[in-house]
Model the fold of this input.
Amino acid sequence: MFKISSLNSLSVILKIGVGLVTSKLLAVFVGPGGMALVGNLRNFMTSLESISTLGFQNGIVKYVAETQTKNEFSPNEKWVPENPNLNTFSEESEKDQSELQKIMATVFISLLFVAMLLSGGLFFLATYFSSHIFGNSWDFSVVFKVLALALPWYAVSLFFVSVINGLGQFKKVIWITILGNAIGLLVSLVLIWNYKTLGALLAIVVTPALLFFVTFYFINKEISVFKAIRLQYFDFKIIKNLSSYSLMALVSSVLGPLVLLEIRKNVIASVGLDAAGYWETITRISSYYMLFASTILSVYFLPKLANAKNNGETKTVFWSYYKSILPLFIVGLTMIYFLRFFIVELLFTKEFLPVASMFFWQLVGDILKVTFLILGYQLFAKKLTLAFIISEIASLAVLYFLSNYLILFFGIQGVLIAQVLDNLIYLLVLVVYFRKSLF
Done:
């Protein structure tokens, strides 16, 4: 298990390292208030990313992977559509190539069309988005105009990564992630150093677009992109097939960030901008260590759950996770709790020391989250779309209303307590739903 998960460890460690350096830059140059604004834009970008790719990413990986037949071409041989010197394969292989052409052309044209529409809206409504995301006290409309220009490049780069992943080029995906993180660090360093808060916001929207050139380099070594993407290969059946896979992704990655954005706006209005910045800070810290749990779940446990044929096999996977990963995670978070003051001063500045008082509820909530995550992955593994959508919407509704209520009594701590209660309820619901597989 750990051998498999370690394949992605270099990428995860580098991502965490870049995140820590970027967090320090933000702490020094923009402070808690700027951190809150950065959090707002990140939530918005997450939703926009899912909308611009139509939630197709996981579906693209699946369908591209299905087009790969054994001995289709050697690892060092580049696939070129309609090249008679290379396309001398079996009838089944030629059929797979034709299907890959349709996927490439259909998805690329669809995503580019959607991205262009979104870009137009962002550019001409930049002032509206600025006031809605950041409030009327700041005018960052230029950020959304830059985002409008960058979005098509970003959407296409995400598509390329999904295709490369589907082709089974795992090392190339890791290298893309590594180079993307390195580019992000350099861009953030230059922009934050020179433009403070505005620079931090611009770095968030510019960096993903620059990833296009990295992804294009890698995918063009596998497929002749310009020959594969043609209007004549567009097929509406591909869109129909992908739509079933995009529904869960869109609900989770669009509604989730939007709810968090609304909660943070309420925190700014009720408790203040600095308090919202402290919440964003503890959320960033949480995201770093949660990467380890999410990585090992997606790399090792998700395929195991997908291949489990009955409740007995599923139960074995569940309890393997609870006996190995969960105890280690609890020990790790306990250590983090006792080192919380050191962690805050190391990663940020003394101005952020109030964050140390937020660790307890955040860590309790994360332990509950790691406990139910594998049950949540079962919803994906077995394609329980309706159950996932209902549970996700209900969970977000509970979090939203509890946060707005508890903040009146406990201030910013009320948001963290709401997260704990929401995670506890979600865990209990999933335990009941999967009781036969668990017990």
